[in-house]
Design goal:
alpha/beta, Rossmann fold, 12 strands
Length: 286
């Protein structure tokens, strides 16, 4: 199987996809990074490479910045997806696209199934939903939308690495406690995407770490696991905050846990509990 991955190697998911390429996959590369916002470049690159599978790991992910840059966010999260979809159709490629829990609304305490009502509360969520809608319109049977949430890795910028830095600088950190989701190790997400690519899975799937947590719970776990590994050399107080105490430009759902059962069954692959994955990832930093 010949595969092409969009995005930059600076991105944590792209990096993990490169680290986990299956032995029976030939990874196709360009001499330079592909600007997926350039439709002509996308059509030319895919026509030249002729991949069997495209994994779109590129996205505009600056949730708060998107509130002031809606056009830029829409261009990457929806416009570029349309370019990739049209290129995929023209070259008979299967397209795997990564989306987000932010396409849903505030939630009611029950995990969101794949066909639950969508009602994004931020510009970022709306642009990611628009990308999903492009796929369903153009490639209903030859594309997969894989929703995920709270992604972290030993590479790139993410909540875990921010917490490690702050905990090594301060004696106390404040973290929001009333937003609940599921932390996701990018390497586990990459493995799920490769499984889906091998099966040419289509439709919509969900992949996160198993279990749930608030950001506060996640931060407490980071502190405990990092202390045990010697990544933090002193105890730090983690203070729970409410969303109202830590306002941000973009609204965020209070509960955005994704239901995983259907994906586990379809891929014959189960997710590890998020804390086990966190511990494994932190060992890479020691």
């Amino acid at each position: 199987m010949k595969a092409f991955i969009t995005g930059s190697s600076r991105g944590q998911l792209h990096w993990e996809l490169l680290r986990t390429v299956p032995e029976d996959v030939e990874l196709l590369e360009l001499g330079e990074r592909l600007d997926i916002g350039d439709d002509a470049a996308v059509q030319s690159a895919i026509s030249m490479l002729k991949p069997d599978v495209i994994i779109n790991a590129a996205a505009y992910t600056a949730v708060d910045k998107a509130e002031s840059e809606p056009e830029q966010a829409m261009a990457i999260n929806a416009g570029a997806v349309e370019s990739l979809a049209r290129a995929s159709i023209a070259n008979d490629a299967h397209l795997l696209h990564v989306s987000t829990d932010f396409v849903f609304g505030q939630g009611n305490g029950a995990p969101f199934v794949e066909d639950a009502e969508v009602a994004p509360v931020s510009v970022y969520g709306k642009t990611k939903l628009a990308g999903e809608q492009v796929l369903r319109r153009l490639m209903p049977d030859s594309s997969l939308c894989m929703r995920t949430a709270w992604v972290y890795s030993s590479h790139g910028n993410n909540f875990v690495k921010t917490m490690l830095r702050l905990m090594n600088e301060r004696g106390e950190v404040g973290v929001i406690a009333d937003q609940v989701g599921s932390p996701t190790w990018a390497r586990a997400l990459a493995a799920a995407l490769w499984h889906a690519a091998a099966r040419r899975s289509s439709g919509t799937m969900h992949w996160t770490g198993a279990g749930v947590a608030g950001w506060y719970d996640f931060a407490v776990a980071i502190h405990e696991e990092a202390r045990a590994l010697g990544l933090i050399d002193r105890p730090v107080t983690v203070k729970p905050l409410t969303t109202e105490q830590y306002p941000t430009p973009a609204a965020r759902p209070h509960y955005s846990v994704l239901e995983l059962t259907r994906t586990w069954q379809a891929l014959d692959l189960r997710a590890e509990h998020w804390r086990n994955d966190l511990r494994t990832m932190l060992k890479e930093l020691t």
